[in-house]
Amino acid sequence: MVVEVADARLPFTSRHARLPDLVKEKPRVLVLSRRDLADPALTGDWEAYYRSQGERVFATSLRRRGEARRILTAIESWWSHSPSSPLLFVVVAGLPNVGKSFLINQWIGQARLPVGNRPGVTRAPRWVRVGQHLAVLDTPGVFEPRPRRSEERLALACTGILPEGKYDPEEAATWLVGRLAAHPAGRRALAERWHQQESSPSSRTPCTSEVLGELARARGFWRPGGVADLRRTAEVLLAEFRRGELGRITLELPPSMSSPVVRNSVE
User: Fold this and answer.
1) In this predicted model, what pLDDT tens digit does every residue of 185-237 receive, in sequence order?
2) pTM
3) Looking at the 3D structure of the chain, how many domains does it have?
4) Which comes out higher in pLDDT, residue 204 or 239?
5) What value does the mean pLDDT of the chain take?
6) Pairwise CA distance, residues 79 & 163, whole Å
7) Are the C-beta atoms of 38 and 190 separated by less than 8 Å?
8) Full domain range(s) for residue 198
9) Do the beta carbons of residue 252 and residue 262 sit within 8 Å?
10) Together in a domain, 10 and 129
């Protein structure tokens, strides 16, 4: 069995596009992690969409062990109805930093596998036993060998899936502000935490220096000589989003919804 882990804030873009071809006919479960950071209504919509496509899907916050155990119970129940061997082998796969090792630790009930809120913590595959009947393989996060669209890369950067050094923080933060401005919770967060006037989304796309310069002035982030510190502003904004301090925000909608918060990545 394969358990694919994706980020609930990017339920499509944070999936490995080639995984279905790689696992072929093996049973597969999709876990949308970080449910506590995503829009709850949209998470439900994504679950409904994937179920309509015939997928087994669970959304979980991972930090609540009971939710992670619910996934484990479902896997064990499925296996108990058709056991082909005394041991079920489960591979946990997905992009970097989506919560694969954290999920397994929750199943085990202890922090046996190293975890961190950054890509690349898991360096090599590792088997662990979970209970009497499961052998679980934790795998390093990998990207499929295909070019990603610019918007996809920026979304992956904002959620902490794309490694540092693979994106420009100022570009990613500017893109994120545009997405936040299109979301009611995001507009409130910008107004409350960054002292931005809450307004309706604009069709005009301001440049990076305009967007981050205004935020830097609001927080008092200055470099010597009275120059706005755009880099620090970008890094702080991205960190606040990743921690959920800007609200529960999902960055894409399922194709069944006609007015996406951002451009829909499902094509």
Assistant:
1) 888 888 888 887 765 555 455 566 788 999 999 999 999 999 999 999 999 99
2) 0.85
3) 2
4) 239
5) 83
6) 36
7) no
8) 150-242
9) yes
10) yes
